[in-house]
Structures are given as C-alpha cells and as structure tokens.
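Open question from group meeting: does this chain pack into something compact, or does most of it stay loose? Before anyone orders reagents, we agreed to write out a predicted structure and look at it together. Recording both the input and the output here so the notebook holds the full record.
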Amino acid sequence: MKAVFRYCCEKVWVVLFLLAMFCLSEARAGGGWVAKPGRGYLQLGYSRKTAEVVWDAKGNDFFNRNAAGDAHYHDFRYGYFSGEIGLFSRVSGHFLMTYLWGYEGYKNTELEENFGLSDAWFGANFQLQEGSWPMSLRANIRTPFFYDQKGPYVRHLYNTENYRRPDGTVVRDSTFLVMNNPEWRGLLRYDYTFSYNLSHSFLNYSAWMSFELGFTYRQGAPADEVPVNFELGYTLPLRPLEPMLKFGVNLVRSLHNESRSEPHDRFNFPPNSAYTFNDASMARASLALLVPINERFMAQVGYGQWVWGRGARQYKEPFVSLGYALGAGH
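Structure tokens returned:
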C-alpha cells in the first residue's frame, strides 16, 4: 500500500511542483489566508540551530559524550528563501528553499563541516472559505532534490581516483581523501503533507491567530507524522511603525510506524535504542518581533526553543528575516 500511495503522490506532486516553480513562504506562513492572484510575498532569512542534549525515546535528557566527557554538538546555520504568490482565484503556490552551513561533532574537538543546499518545500494552498474565519487546505512536498546522490547513504565520500602529491609522486590508493557526503545536509527523504488551516482577526484587526492540523506521509523508514501549528499575533500601538509580536507553537507527533531502515535512509537506529530520529516527536515555542519598514518591506527577529521531545535534539534557534510584499495595494 505504501508503494501505491507513494506512486500516486509523486504523480500529483509533479503538477504541484511545476505550479510552485512558476510562481517562484515558509510552509506555515499563510494560515487560512490565501494570496490573491498576482499578490503574495518573498522572504530571505537566516537561523542558527544549536544543541548538545537529546531527548531519548522516553522523553528523558540524554547526553551523548565521548571518552573525554565532551558533549556531541550540533551547530546548523540555515539561510532560506521562501515565498507565496496567488496563482488563480482561491489558489496560491508556495516554496521554501534552504542552504545549510552545518557543523557536527564533539565539543572541544574539530567539528565535521558540510555546506550546501538542503531540503526544499513546494506546494499549493486552496481557499475553502473567506470572511472573518478564513479556511484553507495546504498540500506540501519536502524534497531532497538539491543534495540527493545515487546509491546507498554513506556518511563520507572517498576519492577513488589516483592522486598526485605536491612532490610529484602518484598515490594509487587515495581513499584517504575524504569529503562529507552532501546527503548529510537534510532528511534525505520525501515528505507529503496535507493540512487544514484556520485563521481569524480580532480586536479591530490588531490581533490575529492561525491554527494548522495536518498529516505527513514520510517516504522510507522514518515514521509518518501529525503536525499541529498555532500562531497568535498582536500589533503594538507604537506609531509610526506599529510593530507586531508573534507567538508560535509547533508540535510534531510521530505515528510510531517507522519500519526497517533501507539503504538510502540516513537514520538507522534500532527501534528500541536510547534515541531514534526515525521516530521523533517534538514541540517548539517561538517569539518574534515583526517591524514594517514601509508598505513593501517587513523585518523580523525572533527566537525558538524546543521545549519537549522524544528522540529529538533540544535545539535553540534565533532567527532573522526580511520580507517583501508582492502585488499592488499592499
């Protein structure tokens, strides 16, 4: 059944992918509102996720340390480009592309590095209802297209060709020349997410809320997921800028249907290990300040914290972004 479902999804998503590419948003940006034809936004951003503590499969703190007592450390710095644009009446396309500067290893030792394009998301939003309680359906694909390699996943790649040293000698066995596999930079699997979105403005449009409930079918061994997202925003009465505060909660709940790892899977921890990223659940809370620069540009600065999890890293994530409104009348 999974193979049949995946085949059908891939055919549908080819069409959605092409629509999104023509429109050239972060996956959760719109809520129940869908951009009108020709309108929307573009956004450039940067975030830095760091963590040295893991929640194990039961939700307890787990410290992965080497013999010297140094903690295993993640330092993932992301640049991202996202956007949404209205394509037709009640239909918009959205995308999110990411670039990773990644460092991983034990603190106080040399960290492994990996730089390059990471996961990307493409999809479409369908307006179900407008008015004071707008509702929409969102269809989304997460793809490893920009870093995926042929063959089974391995952590490191080796140079298999002869290598000439600076002194002129030729090394026949040059497997000591190693680079980190680009596949290290992301999930390395396709996700297909379908979600229901509801939004509402109140206090004379000075405040708003958005709610999202979805289902993610995940290719390969990792478990499928149920994402739940909530945002609450308020416009501060500080003229002339009128900045906005936005509070968000993002919950990802695993369905615990992970399967035996396949050769192309990145994460292959046994199901009963202390932690397994194939079967991770987590909750993230965030607070952001949005400052309108003019009628087109909006700056954002914020901080996110993973506050609960099972089989997940305890990340901290400051972030900044600059948004640009598309279309007349913004």
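Observations to bring back to the group:
The mean pLDDT is 87.
The radius of gyration is 22 Å.
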